[in-house]
Amino acid sequence: MKKQSARSSSSQILPANQNTRALEPPENAETLRPDPHDLLGDAPIDLKVLKSLVDKSILSVKDFDRKTVVELCRFAALLEVMEIAPYHLLDGKILITAFFEASTRTRTSFESATLRLDGKIISIPDAAITGVKKGESLGDIGEMFNAYGDLVIMRHTETDALDRIRQNLRIPLINAGNGSGEHPTQALADWYALLKWKPELAAKKRKKRNGGLHLGIMGTPGNMRAVKSFLLMSLLFEENFRRITVVSEMADPLGPELREEIEGAGIEFQECSNIQEVISDLDVVYMNSIAFLGDSYRTLDSQNKIEKKSPLKKNAIIMHPLARLGELDTDLDNTRHNLYFAQAHGAVFVRQALLTAVFDRFDRLPEGIPLK
Ligand code: CP
Q1: Residues 175-184: what's their mean pLDDT?
Q2: CA gap 71, 46 in Å, rounded
Q3: Quick check: CB of 184 below 6 Å from ligand 1?
Q4: 10, 29, 66, 67: which could form a disulfide with 25 (CB 3.0–4.6 Å)?
């Protein structure tokens, strides 16, 4: 499928992952599918950095620093290229996926990540099958979860739901999307795809601003949790961006907190309402249109859309956390601009990396893995 020249020493020793065959694009497809070997490289993965996540809850991108994101993504690359099933990394662990709001990718990829590592799942795909339907509080549900599982992955329509379940929860909690709050593991999946596309973005900070990328964000980061988390994680890699443009029809698409974060990073920043004003200068386009306001969904910024005939740069990439509506035309799927399928596919490996770190199961890895 991919060039083999950059293979790390570990993947020369260990058998290749059989499960990734299904990730190969169909014959003759143009779709971008970057090679994890390029990100993995030859340097050992820094175990000390990953061990900072042991027993930790992940509620926000602010629970990560740059080094942790890079080492998690490199560890994910290792899990993507090697056959990991024989090592049962999550054997004996029970994860509760508590989704009080609909999901296609996040719940399924967390469950796939867990099952492929021999962990077990208690799956709650809908609030209506819990005591919430009868008025039970999230605080009480958290107390019960302590006895039933080893970690909770929760999605909820309400931004303050994390605080409410944490009143009584004593096992780690991973935020899988809280209202218009954050979606930190989506940002990990986004950056895993980005770092596979351009591994040099991971390199230690150096002054690159002027020769860097122009990032266009189509959407309203202040109200769209995936966009917000992506933007916050992008600020950890700020020197790679010469400019950020937010394209939104809303009057204040960032809100005060994000505006302060961007201004603090010192990146050149602009806002506009029409994608046509900037599209031909963008290197990375991150887009979304679904926002969560209270307990309802709203489509914002839907007048801006991208399609195959849009005047994109030849090497520009399009990212989208999905689900998409009309803003991203399916005629872009079979083009070199499409990084969004790689985001969704890679989510399994980056979530495996995170769960292995939180449960400190590195001792189950076989000899020959380059860890330091
Ligand atoms: N990216 C994302 O959060 O997708 P789902 O809503 O399908 O989980």
Answers
A1: 97
A2: 6
A3: no
A4: 29
